[in-house]
Design a protein that fits this description.
The protein is mainly beta. It has 2 helices and 28 strands.
């Protein structure tokens, strides 16, 4: 029965106004009961459909017409990575600033940080259930997992990089360099040799919203934590505001986002698995005369760079995809500034995106090159 049918039409078909209202009430009650049983995730913050044709997650989600027109091929080469019969889904919303998504392959779950609210959330692949994972979280930003499955987190509040051990204890991996506290560790990646590379811009110490306001004592830089000695080495400070970072598929290159000036992505050669050389600009991230703000980066098995973007508006905010040569070939448009992203899912072929207050996901026809 279509609710928008008029009562006159119904009466013509032998149904009275009173019977119609009883039927509608019964239908609403039955639907509410079914939703309570089958709807994944907590209802107070279950995602509602935003503009742009992006779908809500869950059994009551309104339909999205295929193909998803917010996954855009700017170059024919990107068509190989698009899937025509899959939607962009808004999995969850209600954060203040969502960041640091990371996929746990053993537990089959996604974690991410809500920096201002000082918590981490977890989304379960099994049924879409979302819960608070850690509270407090040290105003954590970037998260990843090492080769032993232990979680690594960058804490703004405590200006440190920590590891959560299998027994639940916390190991502080790095909290200072040359006797001075870090600014606010931002994002981290792991190398097969066990080394942990991380960036240290000042965002968490500029005010009290994402950490504690405090003095900036170190120039912004990228660091490496040695897996054997625990020694922290500065690998480069040739960047204004280092932010997201990732290795190439063979770990021969390191890509780092500069969220300062000139808002671009830089790339270095990795030498002897421990140092950097030959700095170059990978992309200036501009589209014509428009300057766009990159943030997080991930690499797929073909060496393409998938970079989050925002602070620009419709037609720009979301994800931008570049070939290994730095040519922009595709976009995934979101209705919010995209802060970060990671590949996940059982086949590593699902792109999870943290964007301002929400988390989005879309399947793509490639796989993430590394563990996140």
């Amino acid at each position: 029965m279509r609710v928008e049918e008029t009562t006159n039409q119904l009466e013509e078909r032998g149904m009275t106004r009173r019977n119609f209202m009883k039927t509608v009430a019964a239908t609403v009650a039955a639907t509410a009961a079914l939703t309570a049983i089958t709807s994944p995730g907590p209802s107070p913050t279950q995602a509602q459909e935003p503009e742009g044709g992006i779908g809500q997650y869950g059994p009551d989600a309104p339909p999205v017409r295929y193909p998803q027109n917010d996954v855009i091929a700017l170059d024919p080469r990107f068509n190989a990575y698009k899937i025509g019969n899959t939607p962009i889904l808004r999995l969850y919303t209600g954060m203040l600033w969502a960041e640091g998504p990371a996929w746990n392959g053993v537990g089959q779950y996604l974690i991410w940080s809500d920096i201002p609210n000082n918590v981490q959330h977890r989304w379960l692949h099994e049924d879409g259930h979302v819960s608070v994972f850690r509270n407090p979280s040290g105003n954590s930003n970037g998260n990843t997992f090492d080769w032993e499955g232990r979680q690594i987190s960058c804490e703004h509040l405590n200006r440190r990089v920590v590891r959560y051990e299998h027994d639940g204890s916390i190991t502080v991996l790095a909290d200072s360099f040359d006797g001075k506290p870090f600014n606010s560790p931002n994002d981290a990646v792991v190398h097969p040799d066990g080394g942990i590379w991380f960036t240290d811009p000042p965002y968490g110490s500029w005010g009290n919203y994402e950490g504690n306001k405090g003095e900036i004592e170190l120039k912004e830089a990228v660091y490496r934590i040695d897996p054997t000695s625990g020694e922290v080495a500065m690998v480069t400070d040739e960047i204004d505001k280092p932010n997201g970072l990732c290795f190439s598929p063979d770990f021969s290159k390191l890509y780092v986002v500069d969220t300062g000036e000139p808002r671009d992505i830089k790339v270095w050669d990795v030498v002897d698995e421990t140092t950097l050389s030959n700095p170059q600009q990978f992309t200036d991230f501009r589209m014509g005369d428009v300057s766009i703000g990159p943030d997080g980066v991930q690499v797929d098995v073909d060496g393409n760079i998938w970079a989050s973007a925002g602070w620009t508006g419709d037609g720009y905010d979301g994800v931008h995809v570049f070939t290994p040569e730095g040519e922009r070939i595709g976009q995934i448009l979101l209705p919010e500034t995209c802060s970060n992203l990671t590949f996940g899912g059982p086949k590593r072929n699902r792109l999870f995106m943290t964007a301002s207050q929400s988390v989005y996901a879309v399947y793509v026809n490639t796989q993430g090159a590394h563990i996140s």
